[in-house]
Specification:
mainly alpha, 12 helices
């Protein structure tokens, strides 16, 4: 008798909800286009499991090079990049197994209240720290390009302290509210992350603080800072061209290009998610309110992993020191395959001689 677990993708439309993001809009009846979401758990499951292996390999390759090459670790501009990579890698290790199991079986891995609290706690902390560090990196890169003397004089103030604050604020906030807020949780083990933590349903103030302070404001900092940085660099090109200092301008351009592509990766997922949050929670009496809330909770809760999976590849593309090692690795693999192919080839005369001997 075959007792293997089969994926159960025939789930109700509310099973991947995390209502805390929608400010009460989860109760809306979503009827238009409901069939469009029926296969979303299956699509998301196979999408995440397909992308995770190459992403982890890229993470390992980058970490190995940062350990191997001290000149990369020594660059002050790489500090925030390293922190982003570490946070995203930890997110994959902790959250992705639980998320994949839920998408595969339509229930949480362990039916224990403590597990539900830990899963929600780790996910929201790592997501918020990731956004905070990315927002700080955007401001830091602007100051580094146009006010680098200030950064040299106050290295700890502009590097170590902000990253510590970015990690401390979400950790303290979510630890106190998730584990210490005096309310009674009512978990359902067939809903994503067991449903909403009770402090969010007990007071909408916490909901607004997290939506605005922990999501919208960091995202606005990322968008505005990188937009201003691009405009100023383009304006700087004209001034540098008149002063015949295009070499310095190209150096500044290379310095911002890596972070710019990382910011574009973040904005490609989080900006649409923010727009859906606004329409689903804060714009009243609009016909898109219920559909916006449903699309965000069903898809964008999981699509943030495209940012996590894509981050190491964007970082790798911007680190020229790693490109040579990557080329050497591909050359080594290609050489081994060529040698193996040559050793498996037998001359035609030798094959004919062997055939004659067998016939005799």
């Amino acid at each position: 008798m075959n007792m293997s677990i089969r994926p159960n993708f025939n789930r109700t439309r509310n099973s991947t909800r995390r209502p805390s993001f929608n400010n009460g809009s989860n109760g809306s009846n979503f009827t238009n286009g409901e069939n469009m979401f029926d296969e979303s758990p299956e699509i998301l499951f196979y999408l995440l499991t397909t992308l995770v292996i190459p992403s982890i390999l890229c993470f390992i390759f980058i970490f190995y090079n940062f350990i191997r090459l001290p000149q990369l670790r020594g660059k002050s501009t790489n500090l925030s990049i390293i922190c982003l990579l570490i946070i995203n890698f930890i997110h994959i290790l902790i959250d992705l197994p639980f998320r994949s199991y839920f998408l595969f079986t339509s229930e949480v891995l362990f039916r224990k209240p403590l597990f539900c609290l830990f899963w929600t706690w780790s996910d929201v902390i790592l997501t918020t720290i990731d956004l905070f560090i990315m927002a700080f990196a955007s401001i830091e890169r602007y100051i580094f390009v146009f006010h680098h003397i200030v950064l040299r004089k106050h290295h700890r103030l502009f590097y170590q302290l902000p990253i510590a604050i970015c990690c401390a604020i979400p950790t303290i906030w979510y630890t106190v509210l998730i584990f210490g807020y005096p309310c009674q949780n009512s978990f359902s083990y067939f809903i994503f992350q067991c449903g909403t933590i009770c402090y969010l349903t007990d007071s909408q103030v916490f909901n607004h603080i997290e939506n605005i302070g922990f999501f919208m404001i960091p995202l606005c900092i990322i968008v505005v800072s990188n937009g201003i940085l691009v405009v100023r660099v383009l304006i700087q090109k004209k001034n540098m061209k008149r002063k015949h200092r295009l070499g310095l301008w190209r150096k500044n351009l290379r310095m911002i290009s890596q972070l710019m592509f990382i910011a574009i990766l973040y904005m490609s997922i989080y900006v649409p998610s923010c727009i859906l949050l606004v329409f689903g929670s804060y714009v009243r009496r609009n016909r898109f309110q219920s559909s916006a809330a449903s699309i965000r909770t069903r898809y964008f809760t999981h699509l943030k992993y495209l940012v996590i999976f894509g981050c190491p590849f964007v970082v790798l593309a911007g680190q020229k020191e790693m490109h040579q090692m990557l080329r050497n690795l591909f050359l080594y693999v290609k050489t081994r395959q060529t040698l193996r192919w040559k050793t498996n080839i037998h001359p035609l005369t030798m094959m004919n001689t062997q055939n004659r001997r067998e016939n005799e």
